[in-house]
Amino acid sequence: MVQSSLRVKPRIRIGKSGAREVRKEGNIPAILYGRGEDPVPLVVRPDELKRALSNSAGINTVLELEIDGSEPPEKRFSMVKEIQKDPIKNRVIHLDFLAIDMKKSIRVKVPVNTQGRSEGERRGGKLEQLMRTIDLECLPGDIPDSIEIDVSSLDIGGFVDVSGLSLGEGITPVRPGSEKVVQVVAQRAEEEVDEPEVEEEEQEPEAQE
Fold first, then answer.
1. In a designed cystine with 120, which of 67, 97, 125, 167 is the match (CB 3.0 to 4.6 A)?
2. Residue 89 has what DSSP assignment?
3. Could you tell me the domains of the chain?
4. What is the pTM of this model?
5. pLDDT-derived band of residue 192, with 50, 70 and 90 as boundaries?
């Protein structure tokens, strides 16, 4: 687990017009919800968000939100649930934070990485990665940064399925255990089909009367 702090402010101006005003000031409108509590509108500074998520866990970082407005600031554990971006300017325009209980399991999407070069590739095969991410359920404190798969021993026809992943204690995959994550397949030889040459018949000129 990677944990980071993020200082935020309560958002007084709500609704679409309020969100636009927050963006005009160079900040990000956000909402904190979950755990059966009323949603809390927030204001986030872009530089603070970048700092908090600039680590190996990225969006799976457990955030300790420090909400200004009281002394000391109210603290709430959360994770980023959704990031909305401007498709043209590629800047964050809205954030959804999910309030979490550090003692209760949550579902997260974790990247899957491969390590090494498979035996099958050395013999002319091809490594196919069928899952780039995998959904897991675990306590917030047990969230792995990534799932690493050593593929060096896989020969042609070999594979690693969900049940074969090395997961820590208390981490449960959401996908069925029989689903393949990576596999090595034989390369199909490209058969070149020669088109038969068509001989053009010489046509005798028609006799002119």
1. 125
2. T
3. 3-99 (2.40.240.10), 106-185 (2.170.120.20)
4. 0.77
5. very low
